[in-house]
Amino acid sequence: MAKEKSEKQMVSVEDRTMCEATQQMLTKARRDGVILDLDRGYDMKPCPIGAESACCKHCYMGPCRINPRDPYKKVGVCGATIDTIMARNFARNVAAGSASHNDHGRHILELFRGIIDGKIKDFSIDDVQKLENVAKSIGIDVEGKEVKEVATELCDELEKTFSNVDGEMPFTKRAPKATQELWRKEGVMPRGAMLEIMEMMSRTHIGCDQDYNNLMKQITRTALADGWGGSMVATELSDIMFGTPSPTVAEVNMGVLKEDHVNVIVHGHEPAMFEGMLAAVNDSFFIEEAKAKGAKGINLVGMCCSGAEMMSRHGVPHAGNFGSTEAIIVTGAVDAMVVDIQCIKQGVAAVAKCYDTCMITTNPRAKIEGATHIEFDDHDPRKCTDEVLTKAIARYATRKMPIEIPKQVQKGVHGFTHEYIEYMLGGTFRGSYSPLNDNIINGRIRGVAGVVGCTNPKVKQDSVHVALVKELIKNDVLVLQTGCSQIALAKAGLLVPEAAPLAGPGLAEVCETVGMPPVLGLGSCVDNTRILIAASAMVSAGGLGNSIADLPVAGCAPEWMSEKALAIGHYFVTSGVYTVFGVGFPSIKGTKFHDLMFDGLEKQGYGKWGVAKDPIEIAQMMIAHIDKKRKQLGIDKARERTLVDMSDRRELAS
Ligand code: BF8
Q1: Which of 400, 499, 548, 615 has a CB 3.0–4.6 Å from the CB of 494, allowing a cystine?
Q2: Within 10 A of 249 (CB to CB), how many other CB atoms are there?
Q3: H-helix or E-strand containing 316?
Q4: CA–CA distances in Å: residue 321 to residues 159, 264, 350, 483
Q5: Is the dihedral of CA 90, 92, 96, 102 positive or negative?
Q6: 310 Cβ below 6 A of ligand 1
Q7: Taking the complete model, does pTM exceed 0.70, yes or no?
Q8: What number does the ligand 1 atom closest to the CA of 454 have?
Q9: Is it the case that residue 643 has pLDDT exceeding 80?
Q10: Nearest residue CA, atom 10 of ligand 1?
């Protein structure tokens, strides 16, 4: 990659990312003449019409462009209005996001089926208790049945998540009754994911569905087919096969790389390949091979979502989030970057070439031009993993590039789940969400926020996540996290019980009593479904209304960038959660479609969308919503009393 600008002309690295390790690598890349995504993102001037979703390229009479400043002046060649155009664009974004998670979920289901049938021998059912609990949650009787019988029934039932052509998606049964009734009343109850995504694509073809309200119904069904469908299947079956996480201490940031080890990074989303790699690196044959080449051992670390899953389940170190996947290669210390599906920038392969890192794709659905492809097969994991390790060890033995590894490493507690929250607050014998609800009702905890999602080079990496979460906990809002957002806060040192003093007095008191951090990490992006189940459990525990929309909760993806994030956002909104996106949003303020998303949906009984760029403003919007819900539940007074008590106590203490 040619050096295009002098360092002087470039924006400072401190403005591109708040992650010091990434800053160091960005500086080195510039020195080496290598252009990273963080600089490409700054240089790219996004199309102003596309940014507001005011263009349509669904047929070749166009592409048609509408002026976002005067959106009703013109229509497309076919007559499509701006509302139809924006609804169709959003629909296809959600369809792609939902398809990604459902494709992931279906692969996990196939793996599960292979284990049950005895065709897959390298993986097994790890958590029988969870298997039974999940089966019972959708009405499967487990009494007196063998593990294989329960697993087969669960597998057959969950197959419908993808293949149903009518009826209701199995996991929707786990939502509160009132939420299910709303979906039925509005005609948006998802059937099967393949059907919903197919119908979404068909309805957005030229000349088909041209009523944004009607399109919204299918958008909602397609998004719900993600959250209560493929994503939830992925999380629950992964727990059953690989173990349900429980809090574990893990290290995060680029300092987890070791100069004197063979460094192998796994980056992607599906856990099977990473689990296979974990087994292979512990094989004494490869450890000896590495030692024979002068290394002290093999250092396996994760990045992005599969990294977050492996960190939660097994405490595997995590090297960084989406914004650092190119930068980490600049260390020169990555012997192999092994990827599967989703969020793998093509630029990673280009940077790997500059630093002589083995860039290895493993999934037939996601190859990258110029990368080495070594296919992973669930039936024979070692064929792939052993070849990967052989290449990584060979690269270690012939390292040519100077090594510079940033020192930053942060320890944190990861691996919370909805099951563990229940146990942590209620104890083994009376595990329950009632203590959480009680603390919300008495006002110690003001509400709960899910802060999730990507990093986006349009904004300074990690900065919006960190400022937002700090503001929320300061205001007694308990924060649940997943994905790249969780890694941002882990690097900032907030996923430890010692961060409790950063919380407001009520939340800090709860954290100190229980010994938990004020920010709970729940894993990868598909693990957002743990938040859906936690919200449903809060409704069941009583005292906070009848549906998810009644709860004093809010969600946010402050640095989002992917279509998966839009699908997640919309399933949270239509499950009842006020969801704010940072960065910007692909719709035009003042249009009917925008009003439906940001206001009308709430009037229909769902949650609603919000958008803002500034983290403090986002926090204020979320807190205002939480307070509105507290008032509607009649628990706003309890909080006022609690705050007086707390300040009295502080006065007494001083
Ligand atoms: O699914 S948070 S950048 S890695 S899309 Fe991607 Fe966003 Fe990261 Fe995982 Ni989720």
Answers
A1: 499
A2: 13
A3: none
A4: 32, 16, 18, 8
A5: positive
A6: no
A7: yes
A8: 7
A9: no
A10: 525
